[in-house]
Write a structure and sequence with these properties.
single chain, mainly alpha, about 250 residues
Length: about 250
């Protein structure tokens, strides 16, 4: 039964989606230069297999790097806001305002500020777009920590480090992993924004832009599906980490 829920159900949902996609294109009579169908994607993967491997790796490692920076910075910022009401009230408006700025408008600015530093630019945008959910979730988790537990441990002589390690950290893990699942998709969005808006010939975004320039619609849709697959893989990596580190909070 667990195998059915964990593997067969998601696979069946993906297969049904692809079948409905193929049926819609066939029913509407759309040519592949208007709307590619799933049957058009496999030839594109075979034809450009080397490019997908190279550019897929470029996109993946820069996304993971930006996400790791977002985890470190977002966790630290969330701890500051969670433990200090003054810092929380001071930083929340700034964070909300920053997050409300469309990152597509930030990409050209970053590209101009760091001309030629393509990897750094891409990682920076992935970081900038994905740290916000992590910071907010950690802040909420710590600010809602029951004061009774903190007071009891303090009365028993526990240091602030011990209180954080024994009470605060486990308390925030479910919120942290919930935010991390969101940040995974946001990091991919940031990476591809930089690869498309400020092209430098690297990553799946550059491959998508190449397909657009050459009106190769099957290639463009194949890139989109490849991005979705990478996002799903990274999402399930987060699921595995959540079960390993916060399995007690997972409900079947």
């Amino acid at each position: 039964m667990m195998l059915v829920h964990k593997v067969l159900v998601p696979v069946a949902a993906i297969v049904i989606f692809l079948v409905l996609w193929e049926a819609l294109v066939w029913f509407m009579g759309w040519p592949n230069y208007k709307m590619a169908s799933p049957s058009d994607l496999w030839p594109a993967y075979v034809k450009y297999s080397d490019l997908f491997i190279i550019n897929g790796w470029q996109t993946l490692w820069r996304t993971v790097a930006g996400l790791c920076l977002a985890i470190v910075f977002g966790t630290a910022l969330g701890m500051v806001m969670g433990f200090s009401r003054v810092m929380r009230e001071a930083l929340y408006p700034l964070l909300v305002g920053f997050n409300a700025i469309p990152k597509a408008t930030v990409v050209p600015i970053v590209a101009l500020m760091f001309v030629g530093m393509h990897d750094f630019n891409t990682i920076l945008i992935a970081f900038m777009i994905s740290f916000f959910p992590i910071a907010v979730s950690i802040s909420i988790g710590l600010s809602t920590l029951e004061p009774e537990y903190r007071d009891i441990l303090a009365a028993l002589g526990a240091s602030k480090v011990t209180i954080f390690r024994k009470i605060a950290l486990p308390k925030t893990l479910p919120e942290f992993f919930g935010a991390l699942k969101v940040s995974v998709t946001l990091a991919f969005i940031g990476t591809n924004l930089m690869e498309i808006v400020s092209p430098h010939g690297r990553g799946l975004g550059a491959l998508f832009d190449s397909g657009k320039t050459n009106s190769d619609y099957p290639l463009m849709f194949a890139v989109l599906i490849a991005l979705a697959v990478l996002g799903i893989v990274l999402y399930y990596v987060v699921i595995a980490l959540e079960k390993a580190l916060a399995g007690w909070a997972v409900r079947d």
